[in-house]
Amino acid sequence: MSTESHVASLPVGHVRWRRLAIILGPAAALTAVLVGLTANGAIAASLSVSGQEFLVTSSQLTGHGFEQYGSTIGGSSGNQPVVVSAIHSATLSHLCQQVTVGGVSLVLHAGDGSTPVSASNLIVDASGQSGSQAVFHNITIGQDAGSLGEDPGAAGQAGGFGQEASTVTIDNLVQHTWLTTAGTFTLPGLTLGFGGHC
Predict the structure, then answer these.
(1) CA distance linking residue 131 with residue 92, whole number of Å
(2) Residues 117, 185 contacting (CB under 8 angstroms)
(3) Can you say how many angstroms the Cα of residue 136 is from the centroid of all Cα atoms in its chain?
(4) Of 23, 141, 152, 193, whose CB has the highest number of CB atoms within 10 Å?
(5) Do 171 and 92 form a contact (C-beta atoms < 8 A)?
(6) Cα(146)–Cα(69) distance, rounded to whole angstroms?
(7) Per-residue confidence (pLDDT) for residue 157, from 0 to 100
(8) Angstrom distances, CA of residue 115 to CA of 73, 77, 96
(9) Which residue in 57, 55, 54, 66 sits closest to 90, CA to CA?
(10) Coil, strand or helix: which one is 102?
(11) Which residues, including other chains, have CB under 8 Å from residue 17's CB and lie 6 or more apart?
(12) pLDDT by residue (tens digit) across 95-149?
């Protein structure tokens, strides 16, 4: 039987399921891996920020698996230089977040009781950060940002300045932030409303 007659004999709309599985299987697996890595902060999603900073304060941040490096982030007013802080697991006591919406402050409070806010694979792009005291354990300063290896595995541009530590504690944290992402973000005692300040 010739190839032409064989093709002509196949019913219209016939699907070869085995071939389809061979083609789609690797693509589905790759998609699942990329989505998982993005959710865990290991690779960055392409995001455009609002162009408005917001204030984040905490009486104490404690983190395990810490990385920090310089980068830029795109927004409506162009690229902004940022300090990227990536933490595998973090707790924040007395968290406050403040942003101006329509000329009025929108303020979020959480973790004011005995249970702090907790986050996994926390990545913060900030224009500035301060605290009354910062304690790092097993810190490496001046590492190539492209070779950072602590969880959550975020990395900067090769040849850039970076640092990493096994743990970090910052008291009276103040951050001016463009963007925050996390795999999970648990906010006990959450309150959100207009008016007030951090």
Answers:
(1) 13
(2) yes
(3) 21
(4) 152
(5) no
(6) 9
(7) 83
(8) 33, 38, 15
(9) 66
(10) coil
(11) none
(12) 999 998 888 899 999 999 999 999 999 999 999 999 999 999 999 999 888 888 7
Expressed in angstroms, the distance from the first to the final Cα of the chain is 80
Whether residue 74 contacts residue 87, with contact meaning beta carbons closer than 8 Å, is answered with: no
**Tokens standing for residue 143:** 């590492």
The model's pTM? 0.71
Cβ-based neighbours of 49, under 8 Å, separated by 6 or more: 73, 74, 75, 76, 80, 125, 178, 179
Token pair 């007395």 is at which residue? 94
DSSP assigned state of 80: E
**Cα(10)–Cα(49) distance, integer angstroms:** 52
pLDDT at 20 over 70: no
3-class DSSP state of 124: strand
Q: Which two three-digit tokens encode residue 165?
A: 């530590």
Residues in the chain: 198
- 165 to 11, 88, 140, 190: CA distances (angstroms): 63, 11, 6, 30
**What's the one-letter identity of residue 51?**
G
- Given pLDDT bands bounded at 50, 70 and 90, which one contains residue 38? very low
Alpha-carbon dihedral sign for residues 158, 161, 166, 171: negative
